[in-house]
Automatic annotation (TrEMBL), chain A:
GO BP annotations, alphabetical order: proteolysis
One GO location term (cellular component): cytosol
Pfam families recorded: PmbA_TldD_3rd
Biological source species: candidate division WOR-3 bacterium
Family in the record: Belongs to the peptidase U62 family.
GO MF assignments: metallopeptidase activity
InterPro entries noted in UniProt: Metalloprtase-TldD/E_C, Peptidase_U62_metallo, TldD/PmbA_sf
Metalloprotease TldD/E C-terminal domain mapped to chain residues: 298-543
Protein name (database record): TldD/PmbA family protein
UniProtKB/TrEMBL annotation, chain B:
Name of this protein: Metalloprotease TldD/E C-terminal domain-containing protein
GO molecular function: metallopeptidase activity
A Gene Ontology biological process term: proteolysis
GO cellular component assignments: cytosol
Phylogenetic classification of the source organism: Bacteria, Bacteria division WOR-3
Entry similarity comment: Belongs to the peptidase U62 family.
Coiled coil: none
Metalloprotease TldD/E C-terminal domain sequence ranges: 347-578
Length: 563, 597
């Protein structure tokens, strides 16, 4: 019997799913231990405990992957992760204060995520045992750290930003219904097999993947402010990817994600098939494409690519803590009230937005990880910098949180983006934007401009130690010649200073679209969105990627034939 | 080299059906199990790609591979974890991974036994390719093709680097890198075992719920694990196998602190290959209770200062002694050549220290030691270290390691040693490297003593001692949290790693007074222990204990090696025990919420 018991697992997954989908009594359990701990620990150490928070993230996930018509992985998991935030000292100075002389990797204080797993059943004392232990551990760590903070204060020069370490927040009571996972794994396995088989006739595509990730995440949060939150969150995403190599060995990869808050909101097969076809065509074009030449001149960033670009290059730099920490670049610290972008551009971050046009937004949330209600923040208004994204840790001139304190379980909260929205008052149809690019090329005496169709984001280094440079990877770039011809090029690497591209935006399209993704930074991986129109900038600098030394496979694909 | 013919059927080659329909049915009926093996799309894809690789894979100006092995591990894992009566983890997983052993050069000198750059074996970087779970010939072959291509190119690079390192270091003594083994074909039928997860959930919950009765313990965790591995192995030497490997266990791990604040922890595990071989629930409950009671008692046991005199290793402690001092000493005896000595090397298992004792007497002449991977139980007690074919496709062999006190051979993989060149079916993968390792270690004695405790008292009286020490268990060295690993890392930075084997401090030990009284003691460690202690065995009991354990870096770690040791209790004439320094941490500020009620 070589057909292994694979279908049994699917059934098993479904069963487990129904067993656990029940109303939760977690909040009262958390509340009991929170109250006991707070009362018992308040004055138990050298420094008083003044804030305590328990956050449990209940994550249920199904992930199915298919390759060339065969299932590659089919995993179901459910876990509950506890993060304890413990502050000793007082609002002005507590254990979370930055340590400037911190030791560790390249001078950074190294935060390993600290979490524990909570029982999947709401058994009072089994849950409280974990809460008790983690609280004890975090309380001891907090007492140790504040000693270091105080010692450093006594020996080092004063910091430039003297704002307090923590701010008060309105208590919130909002107990929603826990999220439920709805996913017919048997039917989805079939669909993914069917869809992934569309890659099979192309043996030159070395590796491809069509996957579904279905998640039901419930956040349970209680803290000593009196805040009690149950916030559910569902996400369903389909991810298509394909990789190959060009004749010279350069690795080429393209991706296409789809996201929805409901399983029904996912695209139908024909739409996914169309995306696969486009991806195959683009990859085929890339394989044959010439290498890019070093170039500095006008360029268009297509809507979704522009969204990624803004998120990475701009968004991370308006995260509040980066204006305060001494190790950070503090790009915009003294720029509030001054013009940093063309006057027709405004930027918001609005996590309260659930969808844009007909697309669900991955960056939506009701409450952040400090129990603060999400707020729409006007970051840039008519080109002028107005505000930063803030947490409950104040920064100079911004004493309050605007609900952007986010993290993956186990990490320390920092300011993060939710839904970054770029608005423009200088919109033209995309065709006209293309014509404007040609006009700009002629003006600058360039034979062609560049169109960035697709770029992938990465971790932008904003620190003083690291380069303040771009960290986006262009995936699909075209040359637009002044006679209107388009030509795919490969090996494009963006270089130069990030802010220049923004200050030199000439016009934008009227084609705003949504990028949904996951953002990784110092507080872990979190869901984000960016909405932007295509933008035309008069100056962007690119160079040729360093060539990989890998060779093409020696033997032809064993499947042979094909297209 | 014997090269058996393998029938390769190309994918589109029509089957010969000219012998008639009836004949075909007959053949199917008769050879159903074998046919299943041979017609499996997985084996077919492996065979077809292996044939193409050995025939055609060659980079210009470079030599083709001289040896290629494909191993596909199709694994089903079920893990259920509980704490304090509630399920914490409940996870089933199926994976199918391809591992390639591709060698360029020749048997004498190839790309293996070499670590380039600062990489360490410790990090356990095992290169594997996830394969489709469906038995899809094309999709599997496509994955094998690309993985082989990458392995070949990497092997060429590695061989070139190794050559330059060897030239630079001007190494004179050369031992071949690899040896041939006689081709072994074994196609097992894929066994199926139904796991009643609900039933195991209940048991795990019930065991973990016992800890509601032990207010002195801070936490406990109970883990049920079932793992069924179906392994497909073929290589260019004509080996071809499909084998089943099972492992089932329930481990209970408890932790607390003593009054001084030092950590106390213990692990009680029940291991078997198949679930029904595990002991009855009531038996397990009794053992867990005993562990919890002892651990509770230990919160008040005072530290012992030092002791010099006879020491009895009872039951599990004797097995642990043989495993640490003998088993690890004869295992993993050949270390790789490092391009740069990595920092992490100091954390690697201390093994292989007995290699130089080959053909020398290391134990009293009445002691014999076997390592028998073919054994599945010892007088009815399940052993977990065994297998029918080792991880390099070599047939398992029962070997006599110690004959009349003399070390006569070593467990061998296909990695030759100076003294022994051939594998004896003891090639085991651990942390991404094939090592020569023990499996089921069985210690026997021709001379036994009826009452070992009485013997210990006699020895004490002879030496004018008030009491002797009996050790019944060592601290479990396995359950380490990341924090503990870090602590260990820092503690190593000071003095470096000792050359001699490390025995973790005693855990369950007591004083046996000459009048027969017993008194628990703790916190002793051995002063300068060397394999020499084995020679100082003065008495061996009639009893035997089966000790099953998993070699792994961390509690719950995914890379593990099942090991079994069977040994009698014994007395060592004279040992020096000193108190160990313990790291203490403040006790929890608050009482456990359940016991604070």
């Amino acid at each position: 019997m070589f057909k292994m018991n694979y279908p049994r697992f699917l059934v098993f997954g479904l069963l487990v799913l129904f067993c656990f989908a029940q109303a939760s009594s977690l909040i009262p359990i958390m509340e009991k231990e929170l109250n006991r701990s707070y009362a018992g620990l308040k004055n138990a150490g050298k420094e008083p405990l003044y804030f305590l928070q328990y956050e449990i993230v209940d994550e249920e996930e199904i992930r199915i992957q298919a390759f060339n018509g065969a299932i590659l992985a089919n995993d179901y998991s459910r876990n509950r992760y506890l993060t304890v935030d413990c502050r000793v000292g007082n609002y002005n100075l507590d254990n979370t204060h930055q340590l400037r002389g911190a030791t560790g990797f390249s001078g950074f204080e190294f935060y390993a995520p600290s979490f524990d797993q909570i029982p999947l059943e709401d058994d009072e004392f089994a849950v409280r045992e974990v809460l008790w232990q983690k609280t004890d551990e975090e309380f001891k760590k907090a007492q140790e750290r504040i000693m270091k903070v105080k010692a450093e204060r006594a020996t080092k020069v004063a910091e430039t930003d003297t704002s307090p370490d923590f701010s008060k927040a309105e208590p919130i009571q909002d107990l929603g219904e826990p999220a439920k996972l709805v996913c017919d794994t048997v039917a989805w396995s079939k669909r993914l097999k069917h869809l992934s088989a569309f890659f099979k006739p192309y043996p030159w595509i070395y590796s491809s993947n069509v996957s579904l990730t279905a998640k039901a995440v419930t956040k349970y949060l209680v803290n000593t402010d009196g805040t009690r939150i149950i916030e559910p969150r569902n996400s369903y995403s389909i991810h298509i990817s394909a990789q190959t190599k060009a004749e010279d060995g350069m690795r080429l990869a393209l991706y296409r994600p789809f996201y929805s808050r409901t399983v029904l909101g996912l695209p139908k097969d024909d739409e996914i098939k169309a995306a696969i076809d486009t991806l195959i065509n683009d990859l085929a074009a890339l394989r044959k494409a010439p290498l890019v030449d070093p170039y500095s001149g006008p360029a268009i960033l297509k809507n979704i690519a522009a969204g990624v670009f803004f998120h990475e290059i701009f968004g991370h730099r308006v995260e509040g803590h980066r204006q305060k920490l001494e190790r950070e670049g503090q790009t915009f610290k003294d720029k509030v009230g001054t013009k940093i972008l063309p006057e027709f551009i405004s930027i918001y971050d609005d996590p309260t937005l659930k969808s844009y046009q007909d697309k669900d937004l991955n960056g939506h949330y009701q409450y952040d990880n400090e129990g603060v209600k999400a707020q729409r923040v006007t970051v840039v208004e008519n080109g002028i910098l107005k505000n930063f994204l803030t947490t409950r840790s104040p920064i100079e001139k911004f004493p309050k949180s605007n609900g952007h304190g986010r993290r993956q379980y186990g990490y320390k909260v920092v300011a993060r983006q939710g839904n970054l929205i770029i608005e423009s008052k200088n919109q033209v149809p995309y065709d006209s934007l293309r014509k404007l690019l040609i006009a700009e090329c002629k003006k600058q005496n360039k034979p062609y401009g560049l169109i960035f169709e697709d770029i992938a984001g990465g971790f932008t280094m904003t620190g003083r130690g690291g380069l303040q440079a771009f960290n986006v990877t262009p995936l699909l770039v075209k040359r637009l010649y002044i006679d209107g011809r388009e030509e795919v090029v490969r090996g494009v690497n963006i270089v130069g200073t990030p802010l220049i591209a923004f200050s030199k935006i000439i016009a934008t399209g009227d084609d705003s679209d949504v990028f949904n993704g996951t953002c990784g930074a110092e507080s872990g991986a979190i869901p984000v969105s960016a909405i932007a129109p295509s933008i035309l900038t008069s100056e962007l600098e690119v160079e040729k990627k360093v060539k990989e030394q890998e060779k093409l496979p020696i033997l032809p694909s064993p499947i042979g034939g094909g297209k | 080299m014997k090269k058996p013919s393998i029938r390769h059927r190309r994918k589109n080659e029509p089957r010969r059906t000219d012998k008639g329909f009836g004949m075909l049915i007959f053949c199917l009926f008769l050879l159903i199990s074998i046919l299943y093996g041979q017609e499996s799309p997985i084996l077919q894809a492996m065979q077809d790609e292996l044939l193409r690789t050995t025939k055609n894979l060659k980079l210009q100006k470079e030599k083709p591979p001289y040896y290629v092995a494909y191993r596909i591990d199709d694994k089903e894992d079920i893990t259920i974890t509980a704490r304090f009566g509630a399920i914490v983890e409940d996870h089933s997983e199926r994976t199918r991974n391809l591992y390639i052993d591709l060698r360029v050069g020749n048997y004498d000198f190839d790309n293996s036994n070499f670590v380039a750059g600062e990489r360490s074996q410790f990090t356990g970087e095992e290169n594997f390719t996830p394969l489709p779970l469906d038995d899809d010939y094309d999709a599997i072959r496509q994955k094998i093709w690309l993985a082989t291509d990458a392995e070949y190119k990497a092997a060429i690079d590695l061989l070139a680097k190794k050559k330059s390192v060897v030239e630079h270091k001007a190494l004179t003594e050369t031992i071949p890198d690899f040896s041939r083994s006689s081709a072994y074909q074994k196609i097992e039928e894929i066994q199926k075992i139904k796991i009643d997860c609900d039933c195991w959930r209940k048991r795990v919950k019930e065991i973990s719920n016992l800890f509601r009765n032990y207010p002195k313990l801070q936490t406990a965790k109970v883990v049920f694990r079932f793992s069924h591995l179906v392994r497909y192995f073929i290589d260019s030497e004509g080996n071809k196998q499909v084998t089943n490997h099972f492992l089932t266990y329930i481990e209970t791990y408890a932790r607390t602190q003593n009054q001084a604040g030092a950590n106390l922890f213990d692990l009680v595990g029940f291991y078997a290959q198949k679930p029904f071989e595990l002991p009855e629930l009531s038996f397990m409950i009794d053992k867990v209770k005993a562990m919890a009671e002892t651990l509770s008692l230990y919160t008040e046991v005072k530290e012992e200062k030092e002791y010099t005199g006879p020491v009895m290793f009872a039951g599990k402690a004797s097995c642990q002694l043989f495993y640490q001092i003998f088993g690890k000493g004869v295992s993993d005896t050949r270390k790789p050549l490092y391009e740069q000595e990595p920092m992490e090397k100091i954390f690697e298992e201390n093994t292989g220290f007995l290699a130089g004792k080959l053909n020398k007497s290391i134990l009293p002449d009445y002691i014999t030691i076997y390592d028998d991977p073919t054994a599945i139980d010892y007088q009815g007690a399940p052993l977990i270290g065994g297998y029918s074919v080792d991880d390099q496709g070599v047939k398992a062999e029962n070997i006599e390691l110690v004959k009349a006190g003399k070390l006569v051979t070593l467990p061998m993989s296909k990695k030759p040693l100076k003294e022994i060149k051939q594998s004896n079916g003891h090639g085991r993968f651990y942390n991404g490297v094939a090592r020569n390792y023990i499996s089921n270690l069985i210690v026997k004695s021709d001379k036994t003593t009826d009452d070992l405790e009485k013997e210990l008292i006699n020895l004490c009286k002879e030496k004018d001692l008030d009491y002797g020490i009996v050790i019944s268990a060592f601290s479990p060295s396995i359950p380490k949290t990341i924090e503990e690993m870090e602590e260990e890392i820092y503690s190593y930075f000071g003095g470096g790693k000792p050359e001699t084997p490390m025995l973790v401090p005693t855990f369950v030990a007591y004083k046996l007074y000459t009048d027969g009284r017993k008194e628990l003691i703790k916190g002793l460690k051995f002063e300068g222990i060397t394999p020499q202690v084995l020679k100082d065995i003065v008495a061996v009991g009639k009893d035997f204990t089966v000790y099953n354990t998993l070699l792994r870096e961390r509690f719950g770690s995914d890379s593990y090696l099942p090991i079994s040791v069977v040994a009698p209790s014994l007395i060592i004439e004279k040992m020096v025990l000193t108190s160990k320094e313990e790291k203490t941490k403040k006790q929890p500020y608050l009482t456990h919420p359940y016991f604070a009620k």
